[in-house]
Amino acid sequence: MSKRVLLGLLLACGLTASALAQEPKMGGTINAVIQPEPPGLMLAMVQNGPVQMVSGNIFEGLLRYSPKLEPVPELAESWSVSEDAKTYTFKLRKGVTWHDGKPFTAADVLFSVEMLKQTHARARNNLAQVDKVEAPDDYTVVFTLKQPFGPFLGIFEVGSMPMVPKHLYDGTDWKTNPYNNAPVGTGPFMFKEWQKGSFIRLVKNPNYYEKGKPYLDEIYWQIIPDAAARSVAYETGKVDVLPGGSVENFDVPRLSKLKDTCVTGAGWEFFSPLAWLWLNNRQGPLADKRVRQAIMYAIDRDFAKDVIWNGLGKVATGPSASTIKYYTDDVPKYPYDPAKAKALLKEAGYKGEKIRILPLAYGETWQRWGEAVKQNLMDVGMNIETIATDVAGGNQKIGDWDYDIAFTYLYQYGDPALGVGRNYVSSAIAKGQVFNNVEGYSNPEIDKLFADGAVATPDSKRKEIYEKAQKILVEDVPVAWMLELQFPTIMRCKVKNLITTGIGVNDGFKDAWLDK
Amino acid sequence: MKQFWKSMLKSPSGVIGLVILLLAISVAVFGPLLFPNSPWRMVQRPFLPPFMLSTVPLGTDALGRDVFAGMIFGARVSLLVGLVSTLVALVVGVPIGAMAGYFGGKVDDALMRFTEFFQTIPSFALAIVLVAILQPSIYSIVASIAVVSWPPVARLVRGEVLSLRTREYVQAAVVTGQSNTWIILREILPNALSPVIVLASLMVATAILLESSLSFLGLGDPNLISWGYMVGAGRTVIRQAWWITVFPGVAILISVLGLNLIGEGLNDALNPRLSREGR
After folding, report:
1. What is the pTM assigned to this prediction?
2. Across B193-209, average pLDDT
3. A358 phi and psi, to 5 degrees?
4. Residues 53-72, chain B: which have Cβ within 8 Å of A?
5. Up-side HSE of residue A259: CA atoms within 13 Å toward CB?
6. How many CA atoms lie within 13 A of B61 on its CB side?
7. What is the ipTM of this complex?
8. Which of residues 31-70 of A touch B (CB under 8 A)?
9. How far is A303 from chain B, CA to nearest CA, in Å?
10. If we measure between CA atoms, which residue out of A31, A65, A51 comes closest to residue A216?
């Protein structure tokens, strides 16, 4: 094996290999970009992407998740599940303190669950199957479910269920609590200061329960509103980490080629953003399954991946991203085949009725994607008109079902019961909302499969149910699945071990260190 | 008329401007016949530099679309928007100015305060707001450009009419009992037209610039390619691919320059004080 090949292999193994080979070094400051500026940092109250990214390093959940989405101990050091899969017992870690020195106990967990049910929509949903939560002693928490709920161990991630200090929030008005502006958590980093419009500074928690961690002294989250300026800030060395989505795609190849720069697509497995086109199943030509299938054949999704997303991501095969549990690619396939699309349109009797397409107003990449898809569809003889709109206007149109085709992407949260079913079951058809069954697809068989799948045991049974659901959905094409998106994180190679979990940068600074 | 063409063709800037305009119009009219393919079609690999392939002489953009085809189709949109919105602005501005100048008094006051209301709002900001509210489409763009560009026409026409109003031949017409409409249309306006024509040629140029700026900001008609859109879309990749922005940018520059030269030529030709024969 020549030296060059060996070098290539080493580079390909990338971060993990080199990190394993070295002992972490202590100290140092990291500058990372946060985009856009978060509206607040109290994770239990606001959960926008940037809030999760900063505060996930201040707060902690009971569990962490590996890139394969297996639960790993965090504030809970162990857990057990009863025979009937209805009782989950968590043993909490001892010796954990809040940033103000008070001990973290089971009372905090009980309080957090109650608070989150009121302040955190997704947590409320996730906890819907919970009958009661009890604390037999200070370091044990028992969740009793109404019925078995397969994805239950997947809901304890820091952004989904952050632990809140009871002694600072109990009995106060949560919305106006002064600690919302100076959050107190149990995490490896403590909030220090926030210069609005400029930076957020976190410092090392010296009393962190995992001895020796964190390795870094401080993190500056730099706030830079302009995309081009963010790229320049990285080039000039002002920042060391560009988290996924903080620069435009076409800048990624250029920045990746810079000296001492490492790029990874890892760290989004828990979210697994999947992009698709809403197809309005209710009216017009798109009510015909054959027209929807024709759309799948007509769109060159490899082109979108290679050209518009610069080769990042993966062509989607169906409703689940490939990183989601029970994913199967044993489903009908829709390769790029304009001839077949034309034939299907003809068969369906499509006669050039006008079809409106609504691109996503999230910047250049999405605009270009809208143009490319429009051209693909026009090439097979569809009469497409683009409707220009902003984010709010687009959401309104989609929520009012006033569209024919619309771009979107949604997070999937690791389990089909948490992030997939909501887009296809008929109980999730509700006007005015944009993340539910917007397309108006209704199929009793699918409703039953998703209802059964959420509560079925054991895992093998769930697998069977969800694989069946995927096959039916892909045959019916309720929406046109495009790409599993990848938001690459760009950083200096001297930043080690930043991305080790399924949520990446969001809780990654615990293990990160700087090779000086 | 003959005199006008003679002097127009004597002024070098007018000739250059006319040549450019004729060229642009013929590209806009006949170009799409030579390039039957849609400019949105992805024809080659993305970011192909110019002068590499004869089929895509000016290279391709970020999606592999032909920059040359985009420029030819863009000429159509730019010129159309420029001409139509100027016409609309004239249709609105000339009657308002004429009425204000002819009737004077309260009518003048009311119309001019109304005009000033539009003039006090920065025109580009107003255009952006209008397009954003009306949803970007070729119609809303033409409408908003017309809305922001008629006030200067009204002011100019009013000034001309005010000075012509007191001439003897107008007063003679009043005395002979002609109707106001007839006097405005037949006696006053024809004599007030030359500065309006000069202004109109410059307004077309401004309208092209406005349309380009709107498209640059992503407020163009999403179903039509235009020069401004091409510059805006290519701006973000200018460090990797200069040609995507530079060629349409040059097209905007040349056409606006051409229209300005025509304006200058018209000014020379139509201004009676710059005597043509004796110089």
Report:
1. 0.83
2. 93
3. -115, 105
4. 62-64
5. 2
6. 30
7. 0.83
8. none
9. 9
10. A31
